[in-house]
Design goal:
Elements (H helix, E strand, L loop, with lengths): L1 H92 L2
């Protein structure tokens, strides 16, 4: 039975070494995931800054368009009132 104990201890030693290798591999995978997460965080932060700039640019474009539309509405209203006044004046003076 001594040879069975020796063989069992050898297998147990071999299994412990295998588990240590597996633990090292898991540690390596954990490190890779941490590096990937850090890289993704950096990229997201830089993208977020770019997106904020784009939103500000679009918001400014919308403000400019709104100002132009307001100006157009004032001019249209002024022209309409002016032309209406001229037509009324011409009709009143027309015999």
């Amino acid at each position: 039975m001594a040879w069975v104990d020796v063989r069992f201890e050898a297998m147990q030693t071999h299994m412990e070494k295998r588990f240590e290798q597996i633990d090292k591999r898991f540690e390596q995978v954990d490190k890779r995931f941490e590096l990937m997460q850090a890289n993704m965080d950096k990229r997201f932060e830089s993208m977020q800054g770019n997106m904020d700039k784009r939103f500000e640019s679009v918001q400014q474009d919308i403000r400019n368009l709104h100002q132009r539309m307001d100006s157009f509405m004032r001019w249209s209203f002024g022209v309409t009132i002016g032309v209406g006044g001229i037509i009324i004046g011409v009709l009143k003076l027309w015999p």
